[in-house]
Amino acid sequence: MKLVGRKKEIKLLESLYSSGNAEFVAMYGRRRVGKTFLLGELFGSRMTFWHTGLPPYDRDKTFLLRDQLQAFHYSLEEYGLTGYQCPKSWLEAFHQLEILLKQKDDGSRQVVFIDELPWMDTARSRFIHAFEQFWNGWASRRKNIMLIVCGSATSWMSDNLINNKGGLYNRLTREIKLNPFTLAECEEFIAAKGIAMSRYEIAQAYMILGGIPHYFNFFEKGESFAQCIDRMFFAKDAPLVAEYRRLFGSLFTNSEVPEKVIKLLATKRQGFTRKDILAKTKIQDSGSFSEVLNALQSSDLIVRYLPFGESKRNEMYKLSDNFCCFTLRFMDKMQKGDSQYWQKNYTSSKLNAWRGLAFEELCFAHISQIKKALGISGVSSTQSGWILQGTVETKGTQLDLLIERGDNVVNLCEIKYYSKPYIIDKSYDTTLRDRLQTLIEHLPSKKTVHLTFISTFGLQQNEYSGQIQSQVLLDDLFVEE
Fold first, then answer.
1. Of 44, 138, 260, 326, which is most buried with the most CB atoms under 10 A?
2. What is the number of other CB atoms lying within 10 angstroms of the CB of residue 481?
3. Which tens digit of pLDDT belongs to each residue from 227-275?
4. Which residues, other chains included, contact 260 with Cβ-Cβ below 8 Å and sequence gap of 6+?
5. Any idea what DSSP says for residue 12?
């Protein structure tokens, strides 16, 4: 499989490779987002040393330090170190790495890649101390060293490298967060595999898998979209059902609390405030709980946002990871073992209802494409949904997406995932007018509201479509950033 997308990251990494200075690069991002693949494809033949930490959930944690050191020693031997015993500490292990690099040094760039670095930092191992000594005491003084470290445990990467207050403070020369693919990159990936798939189906795939390249790699030629989803999730021993637990195992030593948070957020698409999360899960409020929320955010599993018209104290957290949303929503069906569930229910009302909600999240993930389609890429904006609770005297309302712009315009966006051009009928026209008027009443008089329709195939023109100021189609969401 050839390297797809990642143009900005490739350009940056190549410039660092050619900088002529010692470089210390930290790349982080969600599990399976493609960090290792990118670096392996880009630098594979140019690697001087490559090691990957052992995953904690695959080993008896009592012996994890010993196993990590043994694995590191095997990597040293693989790249040419001979005559040394397995190190008994990380100080000794990194000293052996220094010896190897000196032996191989011919003056050219030496790329040292340590993958899944957080897994190597086991309890009481003094790993960070030894790693600091390796970089500060030796590698940083050698202009031909390019040290690249990766990790899926993004909170660890942030606390110990990016925001380190100790010996590694301000030592990184570059940090790179690798984000999930956009729809455009997913389309390029599918095409590179030689698979025929319409944009309508690629969007559905994104709504299930997010922009995670590894998950898209499960699509195969000769199968329909529905057949592929059944094989991934609903067949016996479906590979991506187990992936849900592995995801949390890669992020947390103890995943009980974060999984509780995720399961709660999955029950309400608008999410909950921090106070509500604590009350409903009965988790104790503490600094460690804040760390869990930060870790879930930095791993792109949840987002924190301020709903329209609310004060800072009413910030909300919502589940934004498509894969987790889908898995939790259909977990009961997966466990029942109906191997053709998606094929049998492809046109059912339940799946159509899911598509409608999932498409909204897809749109939130492609705000830059929406703004580009509206011609407002250069205008500052904030995005959120809005729920106005009804009272005895007034009717409540719910708005899918509001784009509050710096030019005093608010785009009230209605979002519809539909298999053909959408028809606004009299009843829906009345609903739209009510929503528009309600929003206007809650905005300063200087603001103008543009009713915007985001859909797969646009609107069918009729007597009710004239009030729509602008449209964004599915094709617009496939435009490269």
1. 326
2. 12
3. 999 999 999 889 999 899 889 888 887 889 999 999 999 999 889 999 9
4. 281, 283
5. H
